[in-house]
Amino acid sequence: MKKQTILVCVSHSDDQVIGMGSSIAKFASEGKDVIVVIFSYGAESVPWMKEKHIIETRVKESMKIDKFLGAKKTIFLGLSDKNMEEKIKKFKTEKKLELIISKYNPEKIFTHALDPHPNHRIVHKTVLKVLDSMKKNIPVYTFDIWKMFDTKEQKARIYIDITETFSKKIKAMMMFKSQMYFSIYPLLPSVYLKAFLNGVHIKTRYAEMFYKER
Ligand SMILES: [Zn+2]
User: Fold this and answer.
1) Terminal-to-terminal C-alpha distance of the chain
2) Which of 33, 79, 131, 163 has the greatest count of CB atoms below 10 A from its CB?
3) Are residues 44 and 161 in contact, defined by beta-carbon separation less than 8 angstroms?
4) 1: CA distance to ligand 1 center in Å?
């Protein structure tokens, strides 16, 4: 039987871990190939570091962390966080994503929900646009990063029991030395709270929740 592939498309190198690190570890433990596609290096968020150094650090760090979670491959699309929409056009990012989807032919795609971060929204829209243009009918699930509390999102929800892999996600988050003060510490309480509340919802210890986008 062919190995099943899960494609995860995110804006920044830590989004996949914060948003669905436990599910990535779970998919990997079930023998699925998880491919992570990262749109942006997010370079300008560390004002005192040189850009090239930041990029190298982030690439190395997130490859190591994705591997730790069990992901098979991490692909960087190499955009910067500034004017992302423009850069997507300039660097033919949609075409690149199309080639990745064709190559790996994933059974499911996970990406950002429409959370408040503008580049998360751009990645969300780009993924759907590319799938539409390919006329590919692949199920898409989305997750929130910068949204602490539940909103009235009307989409259907799925919950993944992550009791076995939650501690691995926390370990992976703590490996993001470069992001510690920007996203890891600020988001850690909500990661615990969400995992707990989602767990209550399906009567397990911890769970991650996704919207069924299509
Ligand atoms: Zn992000």
Assistant:
1) 26
2) 79
3) no
4) 35
